[in-house]
Amino acid sequence: MPKIGKLVLPLALALAAALLPQPASAHSTTAALATHKSPFNCGKTFYANNWLPDHSPSGSIDWQDYGGDDINGETVRATAAGTAYFYDAGNTSYGKWIEIRHGDGTRTRYAHLATMARAAGGSMSVGQGTSIGTVGSTGGSNAPHLHYEQRTSTGAMDTSPTVDGVTISLGQKKAVTSTNSCGSGNPYTAEEVCGSGYSVIDSAALTGGRTYLLYHSGNGNNCVVTLKTTNVGTASSMSAFLEPQGESRATNSGSFGYYAGPVVRSAAGQCVKWGGSVGSSSYTSPFEHCG
Fold first, then answer.
1. Torsion over CA of 215, 133, 18 and 88, rounded to 10 degrees?
2. Where do you find CATH 2.70.70.10 in the chain?
3. Cα(263)–Cα(270) distance, rounded to whole angstroms?
4. For residues 214 and 223, is the Cβ–Cβ distance under 8 A?
5. Strand pairing partners for 105?
């Protein structure tokens, strides 16, 4: 894949996006305190480009392919824990994008996404490494890449952001290898369990794991899988279920070491109820994701 040139967000639109409501701690002027990891799967290496000049806002990072690895469609993960808010600017500015507000008042942004874990207007609590979307080229982008920002609690840009211990200052381009999502000890991802073509569209935290809803745009199928994050490899009670509205529920439950599922059902044009459990911790959604 040829290397991508400079990818510029329109300044006015980027500034407009910066005017979103501030967190309660917006009086602080300290730099980002959260320890951030790369926004990609464990072991993935991509270039982090802090363009100078001609990148708006200055100090933001464009993540692009490295060594022939195509970044398009890559899973995007939260670089630190917080609450994720989901937006869609259409064919302008960030396109489909997410802001995560972290516990210290700082924020990160992830833009030009192909898919998001929640619909625009939604929000969800995320841990470091939670899958929140996939890389695309929506909005003011001319090729697939991930636009990434670290902002202080005042909303100002951190122009020399650090991810996975690597600081990328203005004008620098560095290869960064992700250690994100390595710590859970679970060698599987929801995408791997469901199979090729599936993307995460929602998830819910459980004590000791997380349950995921995925969709395959090519065949209209949904897939649910529950992954362990503690006691990985030790068999214990788990479940995953999927129920298209008006149809029977399909469930995979038992004593598993890594995951429950995949539960796959055809649900094109239908609402679905989904969820799962790890031990006594469980989640059941309402009927949602209709279409």
1. -20
2. 11-17+36-177
3. 16
4. yes
5. none
Rounded Cα distance between 63 and 72, Å, is: 11
Look up the CATH number of domain 11-17+36-177.
2.70.70.10
Which CATH code fits 190-284? 2.60.40
pLDDT tens for each residue of 26-62? 323 333 357 899 999 888 999 999 998 878 899 999 9
Segments of the chain assigned to CATH 2.60.40: 190-284
DSSP state of 119: -
Measured CA to CA, the distance from residue 121 to residue 53 in angstroms comes to 33
The whole model's pTM is what?
Answer: 0.60
CA distance 86 to 138: 14
Q: Which residues contact 183 (CB under 8 A, 6 or more apart)?
A: 129
